[in-house]
Every structure is written in structure tokens, then in C-alpha cells.
Amino acid sequence: MTSPFTIRRLRSAVGTLLLAAILLGSFVPTGFAVEKDAPMPAKVMAAFIYKFISYIQWPEEAGTGEFKITVLGDSLLAGPLEEIAGRKTVAQKPIVFAHVEKLADLTPCDILVLSGHWSEQLAQVTDSLGDAPTLIVTHCPGCAGNGAGINFVTREGRIRFEVNVAALQRAQLVPAARFLKLAIIVDDEKSKEQP
Amino acid sequence: MTPRVRLSVVLLLLVLGVVYAPPWAPSLAEEKELDDLLEMDLNELMEIEVTTASKRKEMLWETLSTVRVISASQIRDRGYFRLDDALADLPGIQRRDPIGLNSYAFFRGIPNQNNLTLLLIDGVQINELNSGGFYGGGQYNLSNTKRVEVVYGPDSALYGTNAVSGVINIVTKDPWDDPGLRIQGLYGSFGAVSADMGYSYWEPEKRRGFRLAAMYKTSDRADLTGSRGGDYWTADLETFETDLSMDGKFVWRNLTIGINYLNRAASSATYHTAVGTEYLDHDTYWNIHFFNAHARYEWKLSPGFELIVKAMYRNATVADDSVREVTTAGQFGFYRPNHLLGQETMLVWSPLTDLSLTAGVVTDWERLADGYGTSQSDSPELAPPHPDAPAFSDNFLVSSYLQARYELWGMLQLDAGARYDYSTLYEHVATPRAGLMFHRGSFRARFSYGEGFRAPKPWDYTDGEGNSGLVPERIRSAELGASYTLMEKVRLAVTGYRNVLFDVLSRDNLAANKWRWVNRGRVDVWGLEAEIDVYIWRTRTFANYTYTHSRDEEGNPVPEIADHMANIGIALDFTRQIRLDVRCSYQGARETQFPIDSSGRTLLDDAFILNSTLSFIDFGGFDLQFMVQNALDAEYFHPSNQTTARYRQPQRTFMVKGGYRF
Predict the structure, then answer these.
(1) Residue B206 exposed, middle or buried by CB count within 10 Å (0-12, 13-18, 19+)
(2) Any CB–CB contact under 8 A between A154 and chain B?
(3) How much is the ipTM here?
(4) Of B188, B197, B198, nearest in space to B218 by CA
(5) CA–CA separation, B655 vs B142, rounded Å?
(6) Interval B562-577: pLDDT, tens
(7) How far does CA B52 lie from the centroid of its chain?
């Protein structure tokens, strides 16, 4: 049988450890605290977006000395995309990251990632962009059909992406065939609305 | 019921626990770091689970053990040729490489015959069934490896016997990795040649596909003839190693079937000193085969409730054409087949948001050789006849485990659990484990206590004069660690530990040519491992330092263990496609078991070993790599537990590797 002395020592050790852990924690700068679960899907989607670049061809005349990714609105993708911009290049061009809150502040970019709020205002965004060579990326039900080039969805607990080929064509973007094989192709509701 | 069993039962009842879901069990579900994600292609990203298994995702990376991961990109960019090369860059691991029938990795200051460490491929053990030790070497197909996960400390609470000082899990690529066909070839110094291929087919919507991979590799490894090897061997010395690996993985929704075959055929000539002895250093041939097959099915019965069933067959056979020794009297043949059939049923249940339980039952049937079947020829020039099969013993094993993880206030994690094993060979063993982790932001601190054991094998009971009274040797381990990540660019980690190995299985020399194995001796170790990783601009830098204070029961330094070891490396991306990797290892001075020369000196000098790889990646589907190992041509040695007191390690080695993706 375990002696009371042993139990006391065990209690004392556990108590000391708890206290030490809490004290240690109190000295950790809270500025570095992040939501524990949030980064996972955001990082995965950011990695998807970075991978999309190698499967899509932008028109040559749209090329500048840099590749620009903009996030419109408050999106968890902003952090990991900014991190990717700091580390990676596209065809030896640096990736420039921008984060804007208002449509009016938007400047030409190669990829535009919409927050949940701006996804609801998708029509306003596509009208503003017109035929600019910009890949619009969203994460909302039905957004691909309504003008986004790529829209993230979840199937059986895994990330899938819908592609609106007509929307890409309007933006003069050419997707690779092997890219389309992986995608869920959706019809373009926007073109159906045309007379 | 012994106090230890009672303690384990109390733990079980209190926290409903044997613990950790193996860090690799649901390999897709782990929380990925951005760097890992950016190395994946679209197919791989599409296989990451993002919803229902979130609790298990957290369990994987937040295990209270020290887990270090060697990624596929590190394997490629660093040009690792053998598994041993990859392990050498990790803190806390020291090695003994006889350039012969096996090579050994010592975790945290305890020398052994690789039988205190488990090696798994996709979660299935590859350790040789009879000796319980794994084979180091080149037989693992690193081109088909997604990552290598290395767990430090005892893990018998999950894996039972032999998980004493560490677990190495090689995770092979899945059907969604590396789509299409890829072939590679390598040519290098000391007759190094290798070729490998991998083909993946995957239908993401139907979640079905397969991956096939194969590898052939051969090398003479080093020149140890004459004075270059320390005058232990003649100019006839053979040091070849030829490896073959074949993998198949088939996935259809929740069912995975995996098949793995490994063959390692190597010279065992360095097992004995040849100069001045009856032993000859040519025509030996140690030929061992491993065949593993497993099927795994996962039922997601409801959110937070999952049942996983796994069945497996394992075969580890020293083939009957093996010749371990050649003497002036003849060649000596060896033969040792072993089989295992087993199943594991695991239930993962999250009854509360913050509580996760894992319970499982393992049943194994083993048929193990009591010893080697042996034969002898009449001349050193003649191959021996194939030996007869040895006598066998059957072993039935039933194990159960229950583990729990509880999250408290969003910053504390409590883990506890135990495993109970009953074997017809070594009877009852209970193994508890518990731990506590504090995490806040990018800071983590953890404390854990665990035990492990290595059960005697039939060979131990019968070797020499035999000893039926053997009991498992055991380890008790406590570990304290902390890590901090600054802006995801700088990661610092420090781990301190104390290990006590007792009831050590030791050879007791009774008289000339008479011995037996006994439980005797103790190894007492404490140590410190410090690491830093820095990601700045286009560079990735790592450095680690290990201090190991390893003493035997009389307080003497344990031979083969250095007090100090360190590694530093930098990888530079000139462009996305051109990369340079440079690494340097410092191996501290360490004692040998036997005098090196007539002066009676027993100390191996310290050494610096420099390795470098220049990679050109994906130029129109082509890859090209130039590698140099031991670039400074340092003359350095590994220790030995044989009468050959030390083993010269490979000289400067150049290799060039090319590949093409169709």
C-alpha cells in the first residue's frame, strides 16, 4: 500500500509543478499569444493559395517586378499569407503582401483574398475589378458560382476548392489541366444572368 | 498484485488512462507548421483533415515526450543516404557503426544493441523479432519517406517491450504524395550506387488510390583495409552492404493496406579482428529479410468517437545462406526465422470538449527461434550447407492500455495512463506514465514521468549456460522541457532528463567459454539538450548541443558515451530551385570498452565531421544533387563492444544523384 508520506510527497510535487507552470506563464509576453486552433486551417488555406500560383498562368502584360497578394477585410489568412510573402518568391519575383479594409483602398493585385464580410459583398468586388487579371479567392457557400475564381469548401473533413472557369477566363487567367482535375468545377451564375 | 501493478490500476481508474495516441497514428491529422505545409503539393494538402479530428490533431504534436521530426525536405536537401545519417544530426543520439552487419543508435546515454529502441514503419514495428533490436543502415527507402518521427524516452505505456529509450517512426508516402512516376539514381565513392522509383495514383473525390515504391542500394561504405582501418584487417577485407526495399500502400476510403519488404545483405567481416587471429575478413554474408503487412480500418462512429482496428503479419528472418564468420577451419552458416501475427483495436473517445480518452487491446502470437540454426563447411573456401531450422518457442501476448488527456483552463494539459502486458514468456508487466504541460502563446513547458521495459527473448533465456530466472530490464525516466517560438522565425528549446536503467540484462562470464545472461547492473544518466532553429530571409539554420552524464552502478563513466555532442547546419535557398546545405557535427571524446592499442589507451578523440549538399530542384522535372560527406576527410572512430576496440568511419565520400518526375 502506498504510504501517506509518499502521497504527501506526490501532492507536494504536483502542487509545486502547477505553481511553477502558472508562475512561468505569467512571465510570458501576452503579445505572442495566439489562438490555439485558429492557425491550422488558415495556414493550410494559405499554403493552398501559394500552391495555386504554380497552376495558373497570368497574362504576361500584367506582369510587374513583383507578385502581389492582397487580403480584403478581416481574415485569418492575412497572417500566414504575409509570412509566406516574406519567405517565398514567384518565378524569382518577390511576393508583396497587402491588407486593406476598404474596397476603395484596393490597388491592382494578382490574388485577392476576401474575408467573410467581403465575400458577402462579392458582386460589388467583381464589379469593381472588372476584367482585371486578378484571381479572387473566397471561402463561402456559393461564392464560386457568383464570380470568385476559386472558393474553398469542406468535403468529408477535408479542404476542397471550387473553380469557376468562366470567372478565370474573364480575368485572363489560364488554369492548368491537372489543376482542374483536382478542382470541383462549378457553373458561372454570373454569365447565366447575362441577356 | 504488486505495488507497481496497483499503482498502475489506480492511475487507470483515476484518469482512465494509458496515454498518448501514437504521434503518428492519424498522420494526416496533425497540426502542421507552415514550412511543412509549403513543402506539400495540392494532393497532400487536400488530404489534411481540418474538422472532426481536431482533438486528436492536438494530441499528436502536444505529446509530452520529446519528439523531433526529420521532414522529407530535410531528407532531400541534406542528401541523407542512410537512416543513420539522419539520426546523426539529432541531439541526444550517439552511434556505434562497425561498418558491418548492423549499426547502432544510443538514445540519451545508454549503449545497447538497438534493442532499447523501437523502429516502426507507418506505426508497425520493424525490430528483429528474436533479438528485439532494429537494424540500422541503408535498407530504408528515404525517397519514399514523408518524415521520420523520433520520440525520446520510454514509451512502453504505448508499445510495450523494447520501447525503453526511444521510438523511431518512418512515415512512408501516401497515394496522394508525389503524384505520378518518379525515378532517381545515385553514384558515388566506395562503389555507392542506388536506384529508386515511386508511383502514386490517387482519386481525391473517391478517396482511393495506391502508391508503389522500390529501392536498390549498394556501397562498400569505407576503406578499412590495413592501416586505414587500424591494422585490424587485411587488404582482403569486405565491407559491402546491399539493400533492397519495396513498399506498397493501398487506400480505399477508411481502409489502408500496407506492405513493406526490406532486405539487408552485408559483410560481417568487421565482427572479428582478422590480423593475428583465426578469422578471415572476406566471404561473410549477413542476409536478413523483413516482411511486414498490415491492414487498418477506421470507423468514425460519431464526432469524437472513433474505432481503429489494425491487423498485421511480421516476418524477420536471418536467411539460411548467411555466413557470419569465416575462419581458417571453414565457413559458419546461420539461420533464424521468426514470425508474428497480431491485432490492435483502439478506441478514441472525447466525451467532453477538454477530455480525450484512448483505449486499446493488443494481441500478438509470436513464433520465435530459440537460437540460430548453424552449419559449417570444411574449408574457408567452401560455402557451408544450409542450416536446419532451429527450435522454436511460441509467445502469446495480451496487452491493454488506457490513456487520458485533459485540458485545463486552456493552458494546462494533463496526461496519464498505463499499459498492462501479459506474455506467456515473461508474464506480467505494468507500465505507468504521466505528464503535465503548460502552454501559453508560443511558450510551452512540460514535465513527464515514464517507465519502460525490455523483456528477455528466448535467446536470452537459453544463450550459453542459460538462465530461466531472467526478468525484464526496466527504465524510469523523468523529463522537464521548455520551448519558445518567436514570431515563427526563431525557436528555442531546452530539455533536461534523468534516466535510471536497472535490472540490466548483462552477460555473466562463468568460466572460459561458459556464460549466461543475468539481471545485473544499473545505468544512471542525466542530460541536457538545447536547440535553436532560425528562419531568416532565405536561410534555415539549426544548432543543437547535448550534454550526457552517464554512469554505471559503480559511478564509472559508461563506455561509448561522450559527455558532449553538438550539431550545426545552415540551408540557403539561392533561388526556389537552387539550395545549398552545410552541416557540421561535433562528436566528443568517449571511452571504448577495450584498449585501443598496446599502450592500453581507451579514449577515442573528439572529431568534427562536415557534410554538404548542393541541390538543383525541378528543372523541367529534373533534380540534380551533389553531396560530399566528411568533406574535411576527418579520421574519426566509433567505439565497439567487440574486441576490435574502435571502428574507423567512412572517409570523404562524394555522391551525385539525379532524378526525373514523369
Answers:
(1) exposed
(2) yes
(3) 0.76
(4) B188
(5) 16
(6) 999 999 999 998 887 8
(7) 31
Length of chain A in terms of residues written: 195
Residue B537 grid coordinates? 530571409
Neighbours of B278 (CB within 10 A): 12
pLDDT digits (tens, 9 = 90+) for B418-449: 999 999 988 899 999 999 999 887 788 999 99
Q: CA–CA separation, B272 vs B281, rounded Å?
A: 8
Residues in B touching A80 (Cβ below 8 Å): 34
* A114 residue type, one letter: L
Among B38, B442, B576, select the one facing A84 at the smallest CB separation.
B38
**Is B117:B168 a contact under the CB 8 Å cutoff?**
yes
Q: Which of B99, B108, B63 is nearest to B219 (CA)?
A: B99
Contact A156 B207 (CB under 8 A): yes
Please state the φ and ψ torsions of residue A41, each to the nearest 5 degrees. Answer: -65, -35
By the 8 A CB rule, do B363 and B398 touch?
yes
- Using the Cβ of A182 and the Cβ atoms of chain B, whether some distance falls under 8 Å is answered with yes
Query: 3-class SS at A128?
Result: helix
DSSP annotation of B371 reads: S
What type of residue sits at position B597?
D
State the DSSP code for B643: S
Neighbours of B248 (CB within 10 A): 16
Q: Which three cell numbers stand for residue B391?
A: 527450435
Mean pLDDT of the A170-175 span: 92
Per-residue DSSP letter, B285: B
Question: Which residue bears the cell 519517406?
Answer: B145
Please report the DSSP string for A77-88 in residue order.
THHHHHHHHHH-
- pLDDT tens profile B111-120: 999 999 999 9
Place of cell 516502426: B120
All three cell numbers of B57, joined, read: 490533431
Return the pLDDT at B51. Answer: 38
Task: Give the pairing type, strands B622-629 and B590-591.
Answer: unpaired
Among the partner residues B49, B58, B438, nearest to A157 by beta-carbon distance? B49
Give dist(CA B644, CA B640) in Å, integer: 7
**Contact assessment for residue A152 and residue A142, using Cβ atoms and an 8 Å cutoff:** no
DSSP per-residue letters across B549-595: EEEETTSPBPTT--SEEEEEEEEEESSSSEEEEEEEEEE--EE-SS-
Class of the domain covering A30-193:
alpha beta
- Residue B77 phi, psi dihedral angles, 5° rounding: -65, -30
Instruction: Taking residues B477-500, report their average pLDDT.
Output: 90
pLDDT tens-place string over residues B84-120: 999 999 999 999 999 999 999 999 999 999 999 999 9
* Grid cell for residue B226: 590495413
The three cell numbers locating residue B643: 574486441
Contact B440 A48 (CB under 8 A): no
Q: Are B83 and B635 spatial neighbours (Cβ–Cβ below 8 Å)?
A: no
The interaxial angle of helices A39-52 and A78-87, nearest 10 deg, is: 50
Domain positions in chain A: 30-193
Q: For B127, phi and psi rounded to 5 degrees?
A: -55, 145
Site of grid cell 528543372:
B619
Q: How far apart are CA A147 and CA B499, in angstroms?
A: 62
User: Is some CB atom of chain B closer than 8 A to the CB atom of A180?
Assistant: no
Measured CA to CA, the distance from residue B450 to residue B86 in angstroms comes to 26
3-state secondary structure B36-98: HHHHCCHHHHCCCECCCCHHHHHHHHCCCCEEEEEEHHHHHHCCCCCHHHHHHCCCCEEEECC
Alpha-carbon distance of B134 to B453, in angstroms, equals 16
Q: How many CA atoms lie within 13 Å of A148's alpha carbon, on the beta-carbon side? A: 29
How far the first Cα of chain B sits from its last, in Å, is 62
In chain A, residues with a C-beta closer than 8 Å to the C-beta of B304 are none
Please answer yes or no on whether B576 and A46 come within 8 Å at the CB atom: no
Question: Are B44 and B129 within 8 A, CB to CB?
Answer: no
